[in-house]
């Protein structure tokens, strides 16, 4: 069972989850203590309602981006710490942040409702919710950002990208944060949302024809539309399409002028899932620049799961959920495995016949998932099955964290990877050998609940 759920980076099972190529090695090694008293599930629901009511997801993304994007990996300065909340001076007055008072104002009632949460955590989570509501990837959120104590902690102006500059400027800005060319292009895809306003940047117009939808249209348009240099109504240089309905900035066009950037533009234009995966990795890295790792709240999670199992008698279905999450792994293609793909309830693995009824288990664990946003859903499902087994009188098993959740339903694997109860020995070997299981593991795993 341990090998089925395992997330040891040296094993084949952990490699079924895409590694993050943008992880910042400059993160602080100090550990913060996790606080479970902030109701992250409620906050997420309030943010979802706000975004749906106000269609404000583009500006919420921009707020978090500009809060985090000031980070300098060498000096360890800048980064996500809510410095723009000092509205009279400092970062709030930088030219790149013009108009972001609107976003801060929209979020202020939620901050007042949940005062123990930092501004930086709120702004980061708001951007994640905004992207998800607009059709983008479902990205992880890890709390732990501390707010700047005063405006004196603002960094100098000029750390954010200049829209009138080309490839070298982009590299200077993003490399300073610890990102690479792939991350630069993936993050630029955030321009699939929103539009420019003359009263803020001087530029005008949307990047795409559907500025409230998060998809890969930005990259398709960069490659497929004819762009002509012109200017905005205020005289700022920018590119227009043939119909003068959408625009691109000079920094956008740099992505197809530079051959190293262009290969990623071509990849994302052809493969939206690749864009979503890379964007999720890069944006998560951006939002976590410089924040300390949290000590895993495993004792707290264990207590919550033990209470749940004792009250609901749900150990069998929790074990089945983790089994069916992990049991899709294919060692040859390195696909499937424990990554909580079933949480997308409208399609994909949650709709597979073998997973019928597992919505009950997911629902039972959702309050725990909401309570601990810094832990992947796949880790919580796996850990819950370990705890449930122990509570039921089974063996005490070691647990290793590290599973990464899928970000879109299309990362689900095809139906048919789990055992068919009507089949015999040859079928069982096909299924379990695909996972690199031995005959002895095949026999004892057959005792699991189905």
Automatic annotation (TrEMBL):
Segments forming domain Plant heme peroxidase family profile: 103-309, 315-443
GO molecular function terms listed in the Swiss-Prot or TrEMBL record: heme binding; metal ion binding; peroxidase activity
Alphabetized UniProt keyword annotations: Heme, Iron, Metal-binding, Oxidoreductase, Peroxidase
Coiled-coil regions listed in the entry: none
InterPro entries registered for this protein in UniProt: Ccp1-like (IPR044831), Haem_peroxidase (IPR002016), Haem_peroxidase_sf (IPR010255), Peroxidase_I (IPR002207), Peroxidases_AS (IPR019794)
One Pfam family cited in the UniProt record for this chain: peroxidase
Domain of life: Eukaryota
Keyword Repeat among UniProt keywords: no
Record-level GO BP terms: cellular response to oxidative stress; hydrogen peroxide catabolic process; response to reactive oxygen species
The UniProt record lists the keyword Nuclease: no
Family: Belongs to the peroxidase family.
PANTHER family: L-ASCORBATE PEROXIDASE 3, THYLAKOID LUMENAL 29 KDA PROTEIN, CHLOROPLASTIC-RELATED
The name this protein goes by in its record: Plant heme peroxidase family profile domain-containing protein
Species of origin: Eutreptiella gymnastica
